[in-house]
């Protein structure tokens, strides 16, 4: 799968005690336009897995190149993911990264078993798009998104 380039997201919620919880994921995609649905997959072994089962309020942040260190922290088991002060709680108490390339406010639509992962399908409530390009993950490394369209692009 490392040969398939993908964007990088930070998925966040709050647990039943109001503590921020989150994980990094490249398994993110659009599911439906009407209603607007997206999906993200979380490992069942993730420390924050139960928080995403208990709370229906989520946020998805699409990372930009300035967030590589933050993405690495979110991808590290046992790391203090929210210790850097980059996140603030939104009106629902969900931690959000205000300078994300894209910030998606969402809520649970459905959860599915996906082997060693849980597939989280989210209904999109609001989207805030910044002007900075998203970062790509490709061949086990981060890459900048080239802004020059290819000939014949859709």
Automatic annotation (TrEMBL):
Coiled coil: none annotated. GO terms for biological process: pyrimidine nucleobase catabolic process. The keyword Oxidoreductase applies. InterPro entries: Flavin_Rdtase-like_dom (IPR002563), NADH-dep_flavin_reductase (IPR050268), Split_barrel_FMN-bd (IPR012349). Transmembrane segments: none annotated. SMART domains: Flavin_Reduct. Residues 1-144 form the Flavin reductase like domain. It comes from the Bacteria. It holds the Pfam family Flavin_Reduct. Keywords: Oxidoreductase. One of its GO terms (molecular function) is riboflavin reductase (NADPH) activity. This is Flavin reductase. It comes from Nocardioides immobilis.
């Amino acid at each position: 799968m490392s040969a398939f380039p993908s964007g990088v997201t930070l998925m966040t919620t709050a647990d039943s005690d109001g503590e921020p919880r989150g994980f990094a994921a490249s398994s993110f995609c659009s599911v439906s336009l009407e209603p607007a649905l997206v999906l993200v997959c979380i490992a069942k072994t993730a420390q924050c897995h139960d928080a995403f089962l208990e709370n229906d309020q989520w946020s998805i942040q699409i990372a930009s190149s300035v967030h590589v260190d933050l993405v690495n922290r979110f991808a590290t088991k046992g790391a203090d993911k929210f210790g850097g002060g980059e996140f603030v709680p939104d009106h629902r108490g969900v931690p959000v990264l205000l300078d994300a390339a894209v910030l998606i406010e969402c809520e649970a639509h459905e959860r599915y078993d996906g082997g060693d992962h849980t597939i989280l399908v989210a209904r999109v409530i609001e989207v805030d798009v910044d002007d900075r390009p998203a970062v790509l993950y490709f061949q086990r490394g981060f890459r900048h998104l080239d802004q020059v369209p290819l000939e014949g692009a859709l």
